[in-house]
Amino acid sequence: MEENYAKTEEDVMSRTFPTPDQAAFVFDLDGTLVDSVYQHVISWQEALRDVGIELSVWRIHRKIGMSGGLFMQGVLRELREAGREFTDQEVEQLHNLHASHYLPRVPEIQPLPGARELLAHLSEAGIPWSIATSGRRVGAAPMLEKLEVDPQHPMVTRDEVKRAKPDPDLFLAGAAVLDMAPSNCIVVGDSIWDMLAARRAGALGVGLLSGGYGENELERAHAFRVYADPWDLLSHLDELGIRAER
To answer: 108 partner at 20 to 30 Å CA-CA among 12, 81, 210, 226?
Structure first.
């Protein structure tokens, strides 16, 4: 019996098995790498007020990160006006109004704790990563400087995909710019919409609490792990099976 086992073990050890590509990361931006969720919330409240819609801050927060069309559907439901629809032109107008209120707040936005260190560590370790954000490039680009990231680093914004979250388009594109299969990617986000989009993309979702969603909510949305912020994630990369390339 021992001889047969030895032969079997030797046979197994001599075989070569296909090795999957190194895991890659696709990061959401707002609430995941930079502390900007509440600036977005207030800017949306002001944009809605500009067109005569009053909505509480907490109700807006629950919808941050969704596509514009779905966001407005949710707004109408909150207003109990589900029979009404927003035209594409009205949605675009609201996006422009939001930008007019948000962009002056950009200078006050700072990276979340550990965000710079996390991205630097991944780069030094040879682990690919990209950013995929539902924000427009005009608002997202200045965040790269705050994160001390090369402006040419792979990033996908809402301007470059057909649909925003919770559709998977952004995270599929975030994997594609790294030339990686979505199944080899770890999507890191702070909202349930990030986790839903990650699942639909076929990627592994990891949640952060830094955008205001609770641990239970993120786990119900199929987050594999939930961490407090980028620093906490950096401290637990081993739990995701991450190894530096050698």
So the answer is: 226
